[in-house]
């Protein structure tokens, strides 16, 4: 590709492809220039350094949240749709969990848009601004932890490598002294070599949303009904 036809979006798109295929460590200015068929100096025209490129990649990933469905009929459904979309985006780009703290602090346009949208939904649910920001941060960190703990295995592994990784984890738990760690040993026996990954993520989203919905000041969840008093005898 000629350097005069190189655009910032093209550089970011190729960087995303490289990170998705080989991990974020594989993304270097020199490696990216080779893939694009240009000199490293051509990339510095668009990004001053690798950190700036990583922030651009982070922003491009969050741009994908713009396509998240918006049910529009309630803040609960809207927020759940947004959290679900965030999970799907992070699953496609699992390396982003390592960039979140650095890139989010730098601030990016699409990250700010997503955050503002989440705050608007939480405000509609009755959360005051300060609490809404805290809850939005909780959801972002919760989704990050959810994706980082994917039971299928760490990112970048082949299916065969991931299967060996899961088997090693199971054997490690099963080998613990059952008298000292009965629950861990029992869990080890239940760990499947082919885990229900979709079920894991569905439960994770339910768990995150349950806390947010239960604590919403403007739309509280009704407590369970008290049992009727016994008839006097």
Automatic annotation (TrEMBL):
DNA-binding keyword on record: yes
Keyword list, A-Z: DNA-binding, Repressor, Transcription, Transcription regulation
MF (Gene Ontology): DNA-binding transcription factor activity; transcription cis-regulatory region binding
Residue span(s) of domain HTH tetR-type: 5-65
Domain of life where this protein originates: Bacteria
InterPro entries: Homeodomain-like_sf, HTH-type_TetR-like_transc_reg, HTH_TetR, Repressor_TetR_C, Tet_transcr_reg_TetR, Tet_transcr_reg_TetR-rel_C_sf
GO BP of this protein: negative regulation of DNA-templated transcription; response to antibiotic
DNA-binding region: 28-47
Protein name: AcrR family transcriptional regulator
